[in-house]
């Protein structure tokens, strides 16, 4: 198989220059100079650095916020990009060319790497492709900012069996994989502040089998005398009683007792009022839990901050048992798709939505029926081309629906589930109202996955009664961790996952700006992949290869799917000696 190493041996003299697309401010007009890349000198790595070749870069919609905000982006900390530019390209496949003397025990020339861009340095959130200039260049240096951060090195070795594009796409695939791994805290926080809210007149007897020695402080509001005495007798936490509070007093209580940070854990006993639940839920700290313990449905839907479910990992747990602790733990609170269930994917036609659909189809013991929705018929046709055969081969039922022109999505879901609702609903569209509507598709014990991020402070009506009455789940994740990317690599090597199905367009180094614009415009249903080592390759959709590059198109897999053979033909055609 032809690779870049066939033309550019890692032990050859380093390249003198690199072509790069630096970013000098907000707006696409500040990517490059006059809409063109620049040429920079390549230097030898320092003792703690690697010189890497960038083999492939995926374009990601999360870059839009950076393009719009420039130095005001949260990960750039008001940086003046005009004098200290950054560079897009956080989905990257790299090859080590030169190794600094202090790193020669860990790395060697020719070693291939995937990079995990979500990096923490001394607890501060940084990122490759944001704070650290990314992969839209042919060569660059990486050092301690990537290789010696809080979790060690934020790179993962990959074998020669993986192609360049699929290596770069392990990062967005890790975000998808991470959406189904447990990221919520599911027990009372050690040393935290827990608030228990009771209801005046509640005669139920409560207990807790575990977990209530963890908090440093427990605040009690209108809690039954029986539970108050039990806590005072058995818990080592400081007990603070604040009875007789109205909903209007809740905010002041948070400010007084948590320095405005919020309660680490909130328990509400015998909840009846949706508005009371809404008010208390606003006061949960980041990565907090909200535990509903009751047997009677609320009087309506609660207005819940769906942005915080996604970005702050708020866990809504519950039980109809008198044992408060029964709400906690992973056994009760699942995070992956229901085996043999019905899963609905809202906004399935975009690049990330496609990945969710593919994962559901390829997942061993996954859902039996996949309902994929999109308002764009071209994207639905792309889903059909990419996944119809795959679903049939896996014995899965795949339904594709444009909810704006076809029968009601709700009616379809009820028809497919005997009026029960979907086991899982995954939303890849950043819209609070749409998230609230999608929640109505759930079965009582279903799971809502908010994959798309909306700003904190975006509220949607959710039926939280089913959290404690029927074990419903509301989850969301942002980004990925290095362990998620390692899982994707493992699955890819094992043949359980095929990231190449996500490739929708390819281009060479000069086409990077066109790739950014196409990504922003949603021109392609799947991922745009730039190969920085190739020159003269315009941005070309996979469905355009038969006309423009028939020698490459001839190597595509069944259904015009990108594969290592097509990648090899592309390299042979566009490598510039």
TrEMBL record:
InterPro entries: ADH-like_N (IPR013154), GroES-like_sf (IPR011032), NAD(P)-bd_dom_sf (IPR036291), Zn_alcohol_dh (IPR050129). Residues 47-138 form the Alcohol dehydrogenase-like N-terminal domain. Signal peptide: none annotated. Pfam families: ADH_N. It comes from the Bacteria. Keywords: Oxidoreductase. SUPFAM superfamilies: GroES-like (SSF50129), NAD(P)-binding Rossmann-fold domains (SSF51735). PANTHER family: L-THREONINE 3-DEHYDROGENASE (PTHR43401). This is Alcohol dehydrogenase-like N-terminal domain-containing protein. It comes from Herpetosiphon gulosus.
């Amino acid at each position: 198989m032809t690779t870049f190493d066939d033309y550019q041996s890692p032990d050859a003299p380093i390249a003198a220059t690199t072509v790069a697309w630096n970013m000098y401010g907000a707006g696409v007009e500040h990517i490059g100079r006059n809409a063109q890349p620049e040429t920079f000198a390549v230097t030898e790595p320092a003792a703690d650095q690697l010189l890497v070749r960038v083999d492939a870069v995926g374009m990601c919609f999360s870059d839009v916020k950076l393009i719009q905000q420039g130095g005001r982006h949260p990960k750039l900390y008001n940086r003046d990009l005009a004098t200290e530019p950054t560079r897009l390209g956080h989905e990257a496949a790299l090859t080590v060319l030169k190794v600094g003397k202090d790193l020669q025990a860990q790395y060697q020339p020719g070693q291939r790497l995937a990079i995990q861009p979500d990096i923490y340095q001394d607890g501060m959130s940084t990122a490759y492709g944001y704070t650290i200039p990314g992969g839209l260049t042919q060569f660059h240096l990486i050092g301690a900012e990537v290789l010696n951060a809080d979790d060690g090195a934020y790179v993962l070795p990959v074998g020669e069996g993986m192609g360049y594009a699929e290596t770069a796409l392990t990062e967005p695939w890790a975000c998808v994989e991470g959406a189904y791994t447990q990221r919520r805290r599911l027990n009372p926080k050690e040393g935290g502040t827990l608030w228990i809210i009771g209801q005046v007149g509640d005669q139920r007897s409560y207990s807790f089998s575990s977990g209530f020695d963890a908090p440093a402080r427990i605040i009690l509001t209108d809690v039954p005398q029986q539970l108050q005495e039990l806590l005072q007798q058995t818990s080592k936490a400081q007990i603070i009683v604040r009875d007789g509070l109205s909903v209007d007093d809740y905010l002041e209580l948070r400010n007084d007792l948590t320095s405005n940070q919020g309660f680490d854990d909130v328990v509400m006993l015998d909840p009846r009022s949706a508005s009371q639940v809404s008010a208390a839920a606003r006061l949960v700290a980041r990565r907090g839990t909200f535990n509903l313990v009751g047997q009677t449905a609320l009087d309506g839907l609660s207005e819940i901050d769906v942005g915080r479910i996604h970005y702050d990992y708020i866990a809504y747990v519950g039980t109809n048992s008198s044992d408060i602790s029964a709400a906690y733990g992973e056994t009760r609170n699942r995070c992956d798709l229901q085996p043999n269930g019905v899963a609905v994917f809202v906004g399935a036609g975009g690049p990330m939505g496609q990945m969710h659909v593919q994962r559901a189809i390829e997942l061993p013991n996954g859902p039996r029926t996949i309902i994929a929705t999109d308002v764009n018929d071209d994207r639905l046709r792309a889903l059909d081309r990419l996944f119809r055969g795959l679903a049939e081969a896996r014995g899965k039922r795949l339904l594709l629906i444009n909810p704006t022109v076809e029968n009601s999505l709700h009616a379809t879901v009820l028809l497919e589930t005997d009026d029960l609702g979907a086991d899982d609903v995954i939303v890849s569209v950043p819209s609070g109202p749409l998230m609230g509507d999608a929640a109505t598709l759930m079965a009582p014990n279903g799971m809502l996955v908010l994959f798309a991020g909306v700003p904190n402070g975006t509220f949607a009506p959710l039926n939280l009664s089913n959290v404690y009455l029927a074990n419903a789940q509301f989850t969301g994740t942002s980004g990925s961790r290095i362990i998620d990317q390692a899982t994707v690599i493992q699955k890819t090597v094992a043949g359980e996952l095929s990231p190449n199905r996500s490739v929708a367009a390819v281009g060479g180094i000069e086409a990077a700006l066109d790739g950014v614009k196409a990504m922003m415009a949603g021109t392609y249903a799947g991922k745009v992949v730039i190969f920085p080592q190739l020159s003269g390759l315009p941005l070309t959709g996979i469905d355009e290869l038969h006309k423009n590059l028939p020698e490459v198109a001839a190597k595509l897999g069944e259904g015009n799917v990108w594969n290592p053979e097509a990648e090899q033909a592309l390299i042979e055609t566009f490598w510039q000696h």
